[in-house]
Amino acid sequence: MAYTINDRRASALGGQSKDRSRSAITTIVWHYSAVARSVRKFITGHEEYWKNTLGWDRGGYHFYIDADGNIWQNYDYERITWGVLNSNGYTVHISVEAGSGTDYSQAQIDAREWLTRKIMSDLNIPASKVKGHWEVYNNSACPGYTKAQMDAWRARLAQSAAAATSEPIAPIRVPVNYNKMVAYPGYSIDSKPWGEPGLVNWGKTDDIIGNTISIYEENGSGEYVNGVKVGWIDKRALIDIPARVSVSYNVIIKTGGYSIDSRPWGEPGFANWVTTDAFVGQTVPVIEESASGDYINTSLGWIDKRAVEKEPAVVSSTLHLPAGQTWIVYPENGPYKAGNVIAVEQACSCLILGGKGQGLLVVDLEGSVGRVAIRYDESKGATIEKKYA
Ligand SMILES: [Zn+2]
Q1: Which GO BP terms sit in this record (predicted)?
Q2: 216, 239, 262: which is the final residue of a domain?
Q3: Cβ pair 329, 339 in contact under 8 A
Q4: CATH classification of the domain holding 253
């Protein structure tokens, strides 16, 4: 592919000057503009910032590649520019309009490679002397590549252009193993890390808010993660999985107007089921709390702790049976099949001695029946009275 170098040396901030000889230049430095490519800022906008905000008398870069991949020349090689702190006497700078290491378009990457090769040829600079900004002076993540990625670019530049184009750099993948929760909408789910050529969009995080995903690889910059049966997602869409604390106690619902939800209120993906209005006065078991302790998971769902009161310790429970009903009783220790039917003619109360689960209570009915497991049935008028500490 043929490239044009658009010449803006006559209008570049601070103009031209013979600050050094060409032979003083040993190193080509890559940069990004640190502004998202989608913003489509241009070199003139950067110059305004350098001049008006930073008070610079000249720009940062000899060459600039805009959001569309067009190449612009700002300065002669002999001009010293403000590209890297304390390191500009021996460096020639290329900046690309991109906000991160994964924001470059393929057109920009191709133009940068062509331009880098041209400068290497013009100034007789080897590929080993092509550096990322942070490699020259480590005060920035610019140009957004790791050492391994820069090494891969240098290896490519060390080959002839023809050989290099037949052998594209394999994108870096880092194996990992952890879980995250999808918390934020508006991020795309793709077949590759965002910005890599050939990616296919599969969906948006909006549809999987609250889901836990199992992450098994990251891209080289660590900004994108690949989830099992999900795809590549921007890490900013994810949070740590909210912690839970296992507990075991009962609460009495005291206050109406609180929501009962599928997750602690406000947590990503929570859904409202009902409110506490219909359950005031009921005792429900609690199995876990949110990490903050503000929300409890009950047999009804997640409730704000302010809606409930912890049930005091029960010292005794009494079973009240109404007159004139029949009940099924079993031997105290089972089997709980084919029990005996007994009739209770007068209302009676007896201490509950234990529980056998599945609605079976151990009581001593005295007389010929004695100690049995009785099937407790509220619909027939049986009630339990608790005495608290
Ligand atoms: Zn830089």
Answers
A1: peptidoglycan catabolic process
A2: 239
A3: yes
A4: 2.30.30.170
Instruction: Provide the sign of the torsion angle of the four alpha carbons 137, 138, 144, 146, taken in this order.
Output: positive
Could you give the number of structural domains in the chain?
4
Instruction: Tell me the CA–centroid distance for residue 143 and ligand 1, in Å.
Output: 6
Q: Calculate how far, in angstroms, residue 202's C-alpha sits from the geometric centre of ligand 1.
A: 33
Q: What angle (nearest 5°) sits at the alpha carbon of residue 14, between those of residues 12 and 15?
A: 60
Claim to verify: residue 17 and residue 107 sit in the same structural domain: yes
Amino acid at residue number 36: A
**1 — pLDDT class (breaks 50, 70, 90):** low
167: pLDDT strictly greater than 60: no
> Binning pLDDT at 50, 70 and 90, where does residue 367 land?
confident
Given 259, 283, 310, the domain boundary residue is: 310
Q: How confident is the model at residue 166 (pLDDT cuts 50, 70, 90)?
A: low
The whole-chain average pLDDT of the chain stands at 92
83 alpha carbon to ligand 1 midpoint, in Å?
A: 6
Domain match, 55 and 144 both: yes
Q: CA 299 to CA 255: how far, in whole Å?
A: 17
Q: Residues 6 or more apart from 256 whose CB is under 8 A from it?
A: 275, 276, 277, 280, 307
Report CA(79)–ligand 1 centroid distance (Å): 17
At 376, which CATH number? 2.30.30
Q: What pLDDT digit, counting tens, does each position of 203-215 carry?
A: 999 999 999 999 9
How far does residue 201's CA lie from ligand 1's centre (Å)? 31
CA–centroid distance, residue 235 to ligand 1 (Å): 24
